[in-house]
Amino acid sequence: MILPPRVTDRAFARLAEIAEAAGETRALRIAVEGGGCSGFQYDIKLDDPAADDLVIEKDGQKVLVDQVSLPFLQNAEIDYAEELIGSRFVINNPNASSSCGCGTSFSI
Question: Which domains does the chain have, with CATH numbers?
Answer without folding.
Answer: 6-102 (2.60.300.12)
